[in-house]
Structure formats: C-alpha cells, structure tokens
Amino acid sequence: MDLRTTEAAPSADERFAVDSVLGPPESGWFGGRRTPLDGHVAVGGLSLARSRRHLLLPALHALQERVGWITPAGLGYLCTRLDLPPAEAYGVASAYALFTFEPGPPVVVHVCDDVACLAASGGDPAGELARRYGPAGSGTAVTWRPSPCLGHCEHGSAALVQAAGERGGRASLAPFAPGDLDRLGALGADLVPADLSVPLALVPQAGAEGTRLLRRVGRVDPTSIDAYRAAGGYEGLRRALEIGPQEVVSLLKDAKLLGRGGAAFPTGAKWEAVARNPVRPHYFVANADESEPGTFKDRVLLDHDPYALVEALTVAGVTTGAEKGFVYLRGEYPLAAARLEHAAAEARGRGLLGIDVMGSGIAFDIEVRRGAGAYIAGEETALFNSLEGRRPEPRNKPPFPVDRGLFGKPTGVNNVETLLCVLEVLAIGASAYAELGTADSTGTRLFCLSGRVARRGLYEVPMGTTLGALLDMAGGVAGGRPLRAVLLGGAAGSFVGPGDLDLPLSFEAARAAGTTLGSGVVVVLDDTVDMNAFVGRVARFFRDESCGQCVPCRVGTQRQEEAVARLASGRPLGSVDDELALLADLDQVMRDASICGLGQTASSAVTSALRQGLIGDGAHTSNGRRR
Amino acid sequence: MSTPAPAPTPLTLRRSVQVTIDGEQVSVPEGSTVLEACRARGVEVPTLCYLETLAPVNVCRVCVVELEGSRALVPSCSRPVAPGMVVQTSSARVRASRRMVLELLASSVDLSTAGGDVHRWIEEYGARPERHGPPAPAADRDHAHAGHHDPPADGKAATTTQPVKRDNDQYVRDYAKCILCYKCVEACGEEAQNTFAIAVAGRGFDARISTEFDAALPDSACVYCGNCIAVCPTGALMFVSEHDLRAAGEWDESRQEVTRTVCPYCGVGCNLDLHVQDNRIVKVTSPLDHDVTTGNLCVKGRFGFEFAQDG
Fold it and tell me: Which residues in chain B are contacts of A95 at CB distance < 8 A?
C-alpha cells in the first residue's frame, strides 16, 4: 500500500493533539522531521505503526477537542503516524456523531431532545432553541445541536457541552434550560468545560437499607480509594483470588446471574467459555457505552461508585485469564471518564492493577476508552471494531466473542451493571444472591424512571417487583394524572399500557408478555404527552443510529420513520391498513434479516405502539384506539 | 535410464458434511458455505453483495435462508455448513425477507443498469417499491452528519438520488445507483488492489462510498485500476465510454462483440475481454475465472486501449 495523504501541513495544535496520544513521531517516515538518518534506517517499520490502529479513536478525540473539527491536514498527519489510508480513517471518523468535518463555533452544546426529556418537558426543546438562537449549527461563539439521549433522564433535560481549544473538553449540564446558552455563549472560547458544575444524580434510595448496587452511591467518596476500601471495597477481588477462577465461575452459575445488558445471557457460562479457550491472549471488556434512550443507570454507578467497576473488571480479568481489560465508555459521560481514570490510577498505585494484582502474581490492567456518539457501538461486536479503530459495524455471529472477539481473540464482555452484580455475588454468596428476585431472574435490578413520574431517578428493586409497585415507589404519575403508557426497556423495548401494571419485572415474565426489561428503562407517559411526536422520536432515533451496513436496517429504519410520520399526520399513502401492512412487513424483515440486535429490535417499539393505538388520530387522547 | 518418479500430487482431503436443503440430503465439502451447498443442489439463491472472488460481507441480506434452530434468518453466503444443518431456502419467511430487501433497495436506489437477474427477482418475489411513496428529490449526501438528518419529506420516500461524479477521464461514479454492497471497497482494499482509495463513510441511510472528505478521485489514492468497476453489481461505477453511450441512447449490447485476448503491456499474461461496439472498444474486463487476474487488471490493461482504436 502506498499511503497518499494530503500535502497540507498540520498545524502545531494538530501535531500536539495527535502526539499527545501517539507520542512524538518515530522518524521522518512517520510524520517527524526528516533527518539524514531516515535515508538509511526505518525505525519501527510499517507493522508497528499499523499495530497502533486501535489508537485512532483516541487521537480523533484529541484533534476534535483541540481544534474543534477534523481537518484534512490533521487527519492526514494522523494517518501518516498510523500508516492508515485517509479514506479509511475518514470512513471511521464520519460514523461518529461527535466528530465534525467543517469549521464551526468553538463551543457546541448538544441538547437532548430524546424520549425521556421529550416526555418530561412536554414541550419542544429543540424548537425553542431554534427560535431563540437560530437553527442548529448556527452562531459564532456557541452553537447548539439536537442530540439523542444523553443519559441524564432523571433531570428531565440535559446537554453535553463540547468546547475546543487548549483546555478543551466536554462537560454535562443537567438540568439544562435553553437560557443556559447565553451563559455558555458569553464564555465562548474561554469556556473550560471542567469548570462547569457537576450534575447531581437523583437516586432517591441512595444508601438505603436493602439496596445492593446502590449502597455506596451518594455515601462513599467516589474519588478516594481509601473510602471505597473502608466501605468494603476490594473484598470481592480478595475473595475471587482466594477461591480461584473455577470457584468464581461456579458461584456465578449457582447464583444464576444473567447479563443486564439486554440479552440476559448467563454470566457464569460466558466467563467459563472465555477462561477455557486455549487461544491467547484473552481480553475482557466492560461495556459502558450506555446509549439506550432513557437509560442512566451505568452513568450513576460510574459517576458515584467508579472503583466498583475497576474492581469488578479486575475480578473478571483474573477469572477469565485476561491480562488486559477495556472500559468502553460512552463519549457523552465526561465525569465518569475522569472518575474512572482516577480510580484506575489509584488502584494501579496500590498494586490492585498491574503486573501483580493484590500480590497474587497475576497481571491485569485496565484502559478506559471513550466512544464518540454512536449507539451502535454498544453492540458488542461493533464495540470491538470501534476499539480496534474500525467502523463501529456489528460483525456477523457466529463466531461469538468468546471465540473471536477483540483483536480476533477470546473476549468476555459484560455490561457495567452485570459486572457490579458479580461483586454482590462474591459479597453475599451464591445462595443468598439466588434468593433475591425470582427463581429464574435472581438478584436485584436497576430501573431508570423518567418522563411523567412524580420522583424521577434510579431505583433498585428485587427482580420480579411489579411495574405498578415500582411506579408507586416513584410516587406514581406526576400530578396524579392518568397513565397513558410506559416505554419499557428503551427505544429497543416496547410500550406497555395501564393494564400492565401487574407485570412482574423479571426476564421470564417480560418475555412471556412479549416485552423486555432491556436496559431497565421506564419512561412514564401520561395523557398530556403527544404520542405521535414521542413514537416519531423513537423512529427517528433508529434512523439516526443504524450503522448502515445491512439493507433491512439501513433502508428499513428510514422507511419506518416515513410511515410513522404519515400515520401521525393523518395522511397515509393509500389506506391506513396499507400503512399498517407496510409497517408489519418492515417489522418482519428487520427482525428476521438484520445483522445485529439493533436492526432486529428497531421496529419493536413502533410495532407495540401500533398495537396500543398510540399512533395516528387517537394518539393525543387517553382512550385512543387503533382505527 | 529410468524415468524419475512423478512428484506426488498434494492432496487436500476435505471431509464431507451432510446437510438438508429443502428436505433433500446434500453432501458438500467441509468449509463450504450454505450458499455453495444450495448451488450444488441447483437451488437458486439470489445474491447482490456476494462475489466468488471476494470474502463475503453478508450485508445485502437477499441471500438469507431459514436455518432450523436459529432465531433469525442467516446469510447463506457467509455461513459455513455444519453437520446436520436443516435449511429452508423458500419458506414464507425467507421469501418475505427477500421481497422486502429487494423492495427497500428498489425504492431507494436507481437499479436501471443493474443486472437482469435483479429485475427478474423483483418480479418473482413480488416486490412493490412504489408503496413506499414517490421518490424524494436529490439531497446532498456527501456532507450528511452522523446522527442528524432532515425529517421525512412530506409523503416522499428518501432515495440516494444525487448528481453523477465525473472527475476523471476513465470512469464515472453514479452513487444514485449504489446499493452499498461493499464490493468496490473490498476490491480497492485488501481483497485485490491494496490501494484503499475509498471506504464506507457516514452511517445509516446516509452511509456512502467516499474518498477522504469526498475528495475528487485525482486528489485521492485512486490508481484507476478499475477493479471497483469490475465488481460493481449495479453500474454505479462505469467506464466513461459506456456512460456516454448510454446517455446518448447508443449503448447496445446486442451490437457488441467480446474478444478475449492477452494484455499487450507487461509479461504477466492477463486475459482481457475487449467489449467492442461499432468497431470501437467500449469496455475492458477480465474473466473472473482466469487464474492470473481473477477479474482484476491494472490501469494499463483496463484503460490503456486508445492506441488500438481506429482513428
């Protein structure tokens, strides 16, 4: 391959940004100053440069944060450093929402207009911003852009501030009021995101008796490893090292722990498959790319209990024989990123990560990698591609990750909540854990309550708690209004109605009822919510987040959005029945023929909304029926 | 004088695997794909993104089949056979998915120059692209930002309609005809040419084949080998000569003669198929089954024929 990059020279800022990730150039062959020596020796060689392709995403982040956009010269320099064709690097970068390719204002405020905030505000945040500050993307010092869910749903409104410059970076702002743009605009290029105040998590049960996953949240200093250890931290790792990998796997199997990421795969079986695979090395990945609209549970855990994930991932690593672990964290969680980095550094300093974990002689270390605005990167195989510096496109399965995952090696991957459940199993033992919840869904589960509910926030309840009981804990529908529907499980979940309050929230009961717990999303909708707009937003979400690889999802999500819009506007093509038949066909092809779980569930909420009569003329009233 | 013993022929023994396809037992070599097993039985399975000479990317999903025990349908082009597999190639579920894949493509992409099979399949499977609405006008697809798009145009069906890219004398890129089969990216990259001038950019319905920053081909890494044209299933990538003849309404394959010859340039011995209309070379291909080229050529073999033209 002859690398051909632009002849435009990178700016000093661009060199600085890329070099801050990759180190100084090895030689004149890789973007450094040419010296007479370069004519005689090749330092490192091409394969070395290419072996660092996994640093593409971190380096793109550095360019975006320093310069405010990815310039041809900046990308060209990065490609020279990694010996990567610019077309491929552009293909990767342009798949992420947080990278831009045209100059713009140094401060970009991404404002959530997704389902949870839409329901909570009852208005049109993007419309109001457009009226006050002009269309998305306009402005000189600051601009705004609509954004999918930012994971601060308990506040009912949220923004992610992205500032470029020497001290550039990102910060969350929640709750967010359109007027905040004035304040941010006044600071303009002087805005230092780190100075923005940290949004408070709303966890009504924080530290309450009986909570497991939430027991340290709001009680234990999330920036002090001593505080974490004083609260019982690292007892789980100590125990795991004492009893050894086989016993840990047995414990997880006996506890009947199922994955909390959405697929409910048995955790013990997954860990065992990785541990037993003779191919080396092994990897373990914590999937913290929480992007399911309405979900904020992992963010709360990472913001307020980051050591727990570091410890749990270490347990996973030493149990499955992985020496390297990655936390793939969504790019929209700057606080969690800082706290996780800090937690990992402290753990390393105390010998709890590194070449000799807790004096066991076992090596394990962790790297935190940030996503860049792509829901699909949360799909485990797309996540591997993203970590490897490739487009976040799901891979066809089989082969499964336990056989061929990250860098083609056996890989374990678990959601954050699942990993934290492992610590609970180690803490109380398999039988005590299995006694929590139901026979088939053991333990506790986190639920993210948002929308038109009296007390929004993160709740932890034993599996099998009914939906009605959960809503009661949160004070029921805000203002005592009638319940219209609940979006359960997320955008990839489904709508349930007021008649479903007796539904036990367990994997088996949800499955039997034709719905899913998904990522624990409970968006409460009352009779004031414009259901046409709400369902339309779900359809828009999938249209925006499809990776575009396979036809059923790439075109199907577009056609689904169009059909929903036609039904909502009361102007169907042909008859309403024609439209319903078309949506049913789209549902079938996406479920049956898409490559990955995103495509296979992209029609589930829309299909259930039709079943519940939530789209069309009747959708504005509480007694809407399918016509 | 004794004749030397012939060198032993290397034998690659592949075990055979028994699978059931549409109720009939088939025995195929281990490592075959379901698609190969179907074809061995003479079952037609439509394919768009598949090509014998490239690694299957299983993205078009028109080759899906029903596999007993699998929740979703599986792409036959990439799924290796396993002993005892039971496959249905023509069940209602399979036909429904194929019909919808064809319908979705036909409603969004200009398939006018796609191969004849595509139109036959659209007919056979009963795809009705028109029920998604009248096509929306052209949009700027090269600068679409991931995660953002305009709301659906009133009652219109979004399409890939866009102007033809004509930035060099060899070939045009008419991405209004692109079904995003990834073949050109594969051929430009590690499957054949190792030039990597193009890649898939953007995402979702806005995903597209692009050079870096949508640079014109002369400013890209393109070496004009034309191997992307050779694998394009829809005519999105086309010789300028063919494109112009079609625009003038003069392209006529019934008036064309295809002559197989050997490339006159270097000594590798690439076979060329010269497509000649009215005594002029209008296109050059190389046979897929030619073991020197497997369909690939370089810029000289592909485009260096002007010296042979008559006047």
Answer: 146, 201-203
What count of other Cβ atoms lies within 10 Å of the Cβ of residue B151? 11
Count of H-run helices and E-run strands, chain A:
24, 13
Instruction: Search chain A and give the residue with CA nearest B127.
Output: A585
Residues of B in contact with A540 (CB under 8 A): 149, 151
Lowest-pLDDT range, A195-209, A285-299, A439-453, B11-25?
A: A195-209
Q: Measured between alpha carbons, how far is A460 from A127 in angstroms, rounded to an integer?
A: 35
Summarize pLDDT for B179-202 with one digit per residue, the tens. Answer: 999 999 999 999 999 999 999 999
In this complex, which of B131, B149, B200 lies closest to A91 when CB atoms are compared? B200
Average pLDDT over residues B31-50: 96
Report the topology of domain B171-308: N-terminal domain of TfIIb (2.20.25)
Q: Would you call B58 and A595 a contact, using CB atoms and an 8 Å cutoff?
A: yes
How many CA within 13 A on the CB side of residue A324? 14
> CA angle at residue B173 from B167 to B176, to 5 degrees?
130
Predicted TM-score of the model (pTM): 0.95
Beta-carbon separation of A566 and B205 below 8 A: no
In this predicted complex, what is the ipTM?
A: 0.95
Residue of B nearest to A597 (CA): B72
Closest Cα in chain B to A537 = B151
What does the DSSP 8-state code read for residue A206? T
Measured in angstroms, the CA of A291 and the nearest CA of chain B are apart by 13
Cis peptide before A281 (omega within 30 of 0): yes
Residues of chain A positioned with their CB less than 8 A from the CB of B202? 94-95, 548
Backbone angles phi, psi at A555, to 5 degrees: -90, -35
Helix A86-93 to helix A72-82 angle (10° resolution) is 120
Cα→Cα distances B61→A48, B19, B54, B77, Å: 37, 21, 16, 9
Of B104, B152, B189, the CB nearest to A556: B104
3-state secondary structure of B21: strand
Task: For A269-304, write each residue's pLDDT tens digit.
Answer: 999 999 999 999 999 999 999 999 999 999 999 999
Per residue, the 3-state secondary structure of A135-197, as one string, reads CCCCCCCEEEEEECCCCCHHHCCCEEEEECCCCCEEEEECCCCCCHHHHHHHHHHHCCHHHCC
**Range A81-86 average pLDDT:** 94
State the virtual CA torsion across B215, B221, B227, B228 in degrees, nearest 10: -30
Domain boundaries, chain B: 15-136, 171-308
Q: DSSP 3-state assignment of B300?
A: helix
Q: Which CATH number fits domain B15-136: 3.40.50.12780, 3.10.20.740, 3.40.50.2000, 3.30.365.10?
A: 3.10.20.740
